[in-house]
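Protocol step 4 of 6: structure prediction from sequence.
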Amino acid sequence: GSNLESQDDPYFKRNADECTRLKIPFGVYLYSYATNEREALSEAEHVLRLVKDYQMAYPVYYDLEDNNISLDDFFRNQTIANIAQTFAQRLEQEGYYVGMYASLFWFRTKLTSPIFNEYTKWIARYNDELNYDGEYGMWQYSATGNVLGIDTMVDLNYAYKDFPQIIE
């Protein structure tokens, strides 16, 4: 959301501090509600404010899949691309490696601008096969995973790029 402390993830600092302390490589994502470039810039500033003290080994992903946007007839694919590019360029100005996250459906129907080929993709599709012909860096294949020490189900992903090596 917007660059407001009230919209900060209350667990972000603790999780980022613990990953840093334990030398666990991590990245971040922001679920976008932006409906214009000004709001996308605010979302970028939100991320920058939170991550400024951390060395991330994975990209900053921009999560594009809000149902309010997808149902809005006014919202055309190029508008979404302009919003995404505004967010990404602001983070790249500060030296961050940026990617785009969305469902396979969104990548096939909404995120169709060539702009999206400039960024690594993290595609969510809960299935045994991704069945995507384009390039991508990560695939989220399940939302029902289990990880020792976590009491709730978690998302599971495959990384196809060595982001810690790429980003260092």
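Step 5 (inspection) to follow. The two ends are 28 Å apart (CA to CA).
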